[in-house]
Amino acid sequence: MQIVRLTQRLAQKANAAWQEVLRVPSLSVGIYRLQPGQADGQQPHGEDEVYYVLQGKAKFRAGGEQRDVTAGSLIFVERQVEHRFFDVTEELVLLVCFAPAEGTGAKS
Questions:
Q1: Which of 78, 68, 86, 12 shows the shortest CA–CA distance to 44?
Q2: To the nearest whole number, what is the mean pLDDT of the chain?
Q3: Quick one: which of 6, 20, 55, 70 could link to 30 by a disulfide (CB 3.0–4.6 Å)?
Q4: Please, which residues have CB within 8 angstroms of residue 54's CB and are 6 or more apart in sequence?
Q5: Which residues are CB-contacts of 15 (< 8 A; sequence separation ≥ 6)?
Q6: Cα–Cα distance measured from residue 46 to residue 103, given in angstroms and rounded to the nearest whole number
Q7: Beta strands in 1-108 (DSSP E)
Q8: Which helix (H) or strand (E) holds 2?
Q9: What is the distance between the alpha carbons of residues 70 and 52, in angstroms, rounded to a whole number?
């Protein structure tokens, strides 16, 4: 068993946009932050991915779809699908889960 105190991690202002907080072979979890106006430089991943918006407001594009996202939004993106956040108008704080762990999935 592993326990991560997310409230402590969220209270820390990290220097990097991405902060991994948990990793096991089948799953990894992290906190991703984007500031208003900041570009999201993600590339498609080899793993399925779930985002949970903890705070903020932005737009999200995956494949040919585009949606507004705010606190409470849950987003699923299949592996290898082009996606990104844009038009971030309030600091965006996301809990992100990769399955399997980020960087271990099959590349297409």
A1: 78
A2: 93
A3: 20
A4: 10, 71, 93, 94, 95
A5: none
A6: 7
A7: 18-24, 27-34, 48-62, 65-70, 74-77, 83-99
A8: none
A9: 9
Tokens of 76: 């699923």
Bridge partners (DSSP) of residue 49 are 77, 98
Q: List the one residue out of 20, 10, 16, 7 whose CA is nearest residue 104.
A: 20
* Residue in 15, 85, 5, 13 with CA at minimum distance from that of residue 49: 85
Place 107 in a pLDDT band, splitting at 50, 70 and 90: low
Instruction: Provide the whole-model pTM.
Output: 0.92
Q: Give residue 21's identity as a one-letter amino acid code.
A: V
Between CA 2 and CA 67 the distance in angstroms is: 34
Query: Tens digit of pLDDT for each residue in 3-55?
Result: 998 888 888 776 789 999 999 999 999 999 999 999 999 999 999 999 999 99
Q: Which of 77, 13, 33, 28 is nearest to 51 (CA)?
A: 77
